[in-house]
């Protein structure tokens, strides 16, 4: 964004810290100009290095200290800046937080997405929960909504968090497997801790394999509290709904993406923002009046439960747009410090024991990760609201306090800074009574009903994926007793599920289980109301010398006009020579790409091009694999011959009238303008995300 007036307050504040290094002299940290940085100072050209070489010693010392501890969970992430704006003021009846209620107010934000279990250098697409952490730089101070892409969590009390994380992280003896839950310790834990099962169902579902950070929902998970001007509280659940719809990879694809592009989700976010395709979500809330606290058949304080949307609708509040990539990964995405206790007036906590533990953990973790108590001075963490207090000193102190006092109350400095100003944070007044006791509330003890609700709400395809995921995960568990114990738990969710899983993992299938309550929540399925759009979808257009250039150009232009990202993929880089002798520029060389990096594949006509592609195993595999993963395919002219070479079992058009068969769209037309009906049918197939009902062998899930 070059337009000054369009730059938000946080962006302008960051100018104080940006260092451009344009045409400057190289200096030491002390500002002394350096004459030569390729060789150390030595006693003779072949002699020993001298201690007095302050430049090289400083350079190496700084390098030695470049790393900080990675996050103990959510180490792998990607972030971006953006802006939040409410649509209108309806929520003002419930909260004094004006950034949620004043449509004239835009709030700068930084959002960090992450995987949970993997190390900082792990791949983006393991089966895992995704973090969705939003820092709002509001005028009333920073508010952090540190959520996930699942609405429920694995445990109910923070006391179990270290146990859970130790179980899911790589095994302690050999640090294997990296970024994967398919190993003995996680499933041992699950089999002994049934509160995990609802979130485990989400983990085994397609939700754990988002196609893009831009195509996943976000949830605050806990029940929080909104507070109005009179101190009245209202329970609230926060939801983020992506404008592009919620879409997932299939498992076979996700595993291959890990190799083809370990930065798949990072790159997707970065590239989209660079291209001006700003990522968007709608913030919605489910509100529950305090008098209805006990109106549900679960406890609102239990983070393993969701409020079905059919019971309490999600009401739209405003829009989040991510529009600016960070300047420096370490300074911003790595050093950003979220904390669930960063709240502003109008938002408060509940007694959810998971949330209460988080309110301790996040500050504590930043102290070790960022090396002391002054991490709020780091540019990305600094509020745009003014900061004044009597906190002093500590490692990395950036402020030069000029006041003669650092205590309150004082007379020497006119009692500045003074508490109690208008707009101060006031904690919600809640009456609390109870015996001091270490126990789990009885109201938390139904571990299965909502896991069943989730299972019942899946479409057939989604349910199949869940069964396949359990079979994969438990199939990797070496201890058969653990497999059997997990299956034994699953029968309390649904007997059929337990039996299908058992069959795949070589343990006895149970013949008795819980009576399935039969309830569903359609909103839990990703496939019930998918948003259909081709916007930002990536399409590979395969071409070799002899391609029908006019047809190719017309297809690519049409896809780009619809907002998709169309790339010409050649056998080698450079250009392909069309059948009519023009050069068509190649965007990507086939050996550097894979079908798993695209949403759809098109094969233009041109006899020589199609024959050359047909002789290349990688090109044939590219098409066959895209088909296997349910992706839209299109071919025109002789292009359909490549589909046959790839043994794709679809009806193809014999004339110019397009034929669509399970997401495979063909026309015999070639050269010049392609029929609109063909282009529309291909766009529809891409927008449908996947053709789930392909006949031959189904989707490789
Ligand atoms: Fe976190 N979590 N968490 N968590 N969490 C961290 O904070 C923790 C939980 C979540 O992009 C850590 O700065 C405890 C639920 C996200 O920087 C740490 C408990 C949810 C991120 C921590 C939970 C989350 C974190 C690690 C149980 C979804 C990444 C580094 C009581 C609502 C934020 C850090 C980022 C990160 C502790 C449970 C989401 C150690 C003790 C539930 C998105 O403080």
Task: Name the descriptors.
single chain, 701 residues, alpha+beta, Catalase HpII,  Chain A, domain 1, Hemocyanin, N-terminal domain, Rossmann fold, ten-stranded antiparallel sheet, seven-stranded mixed sheet, 26% helix
Secondary structure topology:
Blueprint: H1 9-14, H2 54-64, E1 77-86, E2 107-115, E3 130-138, E4 141-148, H3 161-168, H4 184-192, H5 197-203, E5 218-219, E6 224-227, E7 233-242, H6 251-260, H7 264-274, E8 279-289, E9 315-324, H8 329-334, E10 347-348, H9 353-369, H10 449-457, H11 460-475, H12 480-490, H13 495-505, E11 538-543, H14 549-561, E12 565-570, E13 575-577, E14 583-585, E15 588-589, E16 600-603, H15 607-615, H16 617-628, E17 632-636, H17 640-645, E18 659-661, E19 664-667, H18 676-687
Parallel strand pairs: 11-12, 11-16, 12-15, 16-17, 17-19
Antiparallel strand pairs: 1-2, 1-9, 2-3, 3-4, 5-7, 6-7, 6-10, 7-8, 8-9, 13-14, 18-19
Helix pairs in contact: 3-4, 4-12, 5-10, 11-13, 12-13
Write up what this structure looks like.
It is a single chain. By secondary structure, this protein is α+β, with helices and mostly antiparallel strands. It has three domains: 77-377, Catalase core domain (Catalase HpII,  Chain A, domain 1, Beta Barrel); 448-524, Hemocyanin, N-terminal domain; 538-687, Class I glutamine amidotransferase (GATase) domain (Rossmann fold, 3-Layer(aba) Sandwich), CATH 3.40.50.880. The chain is 26% helix and 16% strand. The chain is built from 18 helices and 19 strands. Strands 1, 2, 3, 4, 5, 6, 7, 8, 9 and 10 form a ten-stranded antiparallel β-sheet that branches. A seven-stranded mixed β-sheet has the order 15-12-11-16-17-19-18, sandwiched between helices. The chain has a two-stranded antiparallel sheet with strand order 13-14. α11 crosses α13 (495-505) and α12 packs antiparallel against α13. The two termini are 41 Å apart. The model has no long low-confidence stretch (mean pLDDT 96). The structure holds CIS-heme D hydroxychlorin gamma-spirolactone 17R, 18S. Residues 71-74, 77, 112, 114, 131, 133, 146-148, 153, 158, 161, 221, 303, 336, 338, 354, 357-358, 361-362, 365 line the site of CIS-heme D hydroxychlorin gamma-spirolactone 17R, 18S. CIS-heme D hydroxychlorin gamma-spirolactone 17R, 18S (HDE) binds next to β2, β3, β4 and α9.
């Amino acid at each position: 964004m070059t337009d000054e007036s369009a730059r938000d307050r946080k962006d302008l504040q960051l100018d104080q810290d940006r260092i451009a290094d344009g045409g400057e002299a190289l200096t030491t940290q002390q500002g002394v100009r350096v004459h030569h940085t390729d060789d150390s100072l030595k006693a003779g050209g072949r002699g020993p290095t001298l201690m007095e070489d302050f430049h090289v010693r400083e350079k190496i010392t700084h390098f030695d200290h470049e790393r900080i501890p990675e996050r103990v969970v959510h180490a792998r992430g990607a972030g971006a800046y953006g802006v939040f704006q409410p649509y209108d003021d309806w929520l003002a009846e419930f909260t004094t937080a004006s950034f949620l209620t004043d449509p004239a107010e835009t709030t700068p934000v930084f959002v960090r997405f992450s995987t949970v279990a993997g190390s900082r250098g792990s791949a983006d697409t393991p089966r895992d929960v995704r973090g969705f952490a939003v820092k709002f730089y509001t005028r009333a101070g920073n508010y952090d909504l540190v959520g996930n892409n699942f609405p429920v969590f694995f445990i109910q009390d923070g006391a179990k968090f270290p146990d859970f994380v130790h179980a899911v992280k790589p095994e302690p003896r050999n640090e294997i497997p990296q970024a994967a839950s398919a190993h003995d310790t996680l499933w041992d834990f699950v089999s002994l801790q049934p509160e995990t099962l609802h979130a485990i169902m989400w983990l085994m579902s397609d939700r754990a394999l988002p196609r893009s950070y831009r195509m996943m929902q976000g949830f605050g998970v806990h029940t929080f509290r909104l507070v109005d001007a009179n101190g009245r509280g209202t329970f609230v659940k926060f939801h983020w709904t992506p404008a592009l719809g919620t879409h997932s990879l299939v498992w076979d694809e996700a595993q291959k993406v890990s190799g083809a592009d370990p930065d798949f989700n990072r790159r997707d976010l970065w590239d989209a923002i660079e291209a001006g395709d700003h990522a968007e979500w709608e913030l919605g809330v489910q509100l529950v009046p305090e008098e209805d606290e006990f109106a549900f058949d679960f406890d609102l304080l239990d983070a393993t439960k969701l409020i079905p949307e059919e019971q309490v609708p999600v009401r739209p509040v405003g829009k989040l747009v991510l529009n600016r990539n960070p300047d420096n990964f370490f300074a911003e995405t790595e050093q950003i410090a979220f904390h669930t206790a960063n709240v502003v007036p109008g938002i408060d906590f509940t007694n959810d024991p998971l949330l209460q533990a988080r309110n301790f953990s996040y500050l504590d973790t930043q102290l070790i990760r960022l090396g002391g108590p002054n991490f709020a001075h780091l540019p990305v963490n600094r509020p745009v609201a003014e900061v004044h207090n009597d906190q002093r000193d500590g490692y990395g102190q950036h402020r030069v306090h000029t006041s003669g006092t650092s205590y309150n109350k004082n007379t020497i400095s006119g009692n500045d800074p003074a508490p109690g100003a208008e707009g101060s944070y006031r904690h919600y007044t809640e009456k609390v009574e109870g015996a001091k006791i270490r126990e789990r509330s009885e109201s938390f003890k139904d571990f299965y009903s909502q896991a069943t609700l989730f299972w019942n709400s899946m479409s057939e395809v989604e349910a199949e994926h869940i069964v396949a995921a359990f079979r994969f995960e438990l199939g990797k568990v070496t201890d058969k007793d653990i497999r059997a114990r997990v299956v034994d738990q699953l029968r309390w969710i649904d007997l059929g599920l337990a039996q299908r899983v058992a069959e795949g993992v070589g343990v006895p299938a149970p013949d008795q289980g819980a009576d399935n309550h039969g309830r569903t929540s359609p909103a839990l399925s990703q496939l019930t109301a998918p948003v259909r759009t081709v916007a930002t979808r990536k399409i590979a257009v395969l071409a070799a010398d002899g391609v029908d250039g006019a047809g190719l150009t017309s297809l690519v232009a049409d896809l780009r006009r619809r907002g998709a990202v169309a790339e010409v993929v050649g056998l080698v880089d450079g250009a392909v020579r069309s059948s009519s002798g023009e050069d068509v520029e190649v965007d990507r060389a086939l050996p550097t790409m894979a079908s798993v990096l695209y949403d759809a594949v098109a094969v233009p006509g041109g006899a020589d091009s199609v024959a050359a592609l047909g002789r290349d195993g990688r090109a044939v595999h590219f098409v066959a694999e895209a088909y296997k993963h349910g992706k839209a395919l299109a071919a025109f002219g002789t292009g359909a011959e490549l589909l046959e070479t790839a043994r794709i079992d679809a009806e193809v058009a014999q004339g110019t009238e397009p034929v669509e068969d399970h997401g495979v769209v063909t026309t015999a037309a070639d050269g010049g303008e392609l029929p609109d009906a063909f282009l529309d049918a291909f766009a529809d197939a891409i927008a449908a995300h996947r053709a789930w009902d392909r006949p031959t062998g189904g989707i490789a899930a």
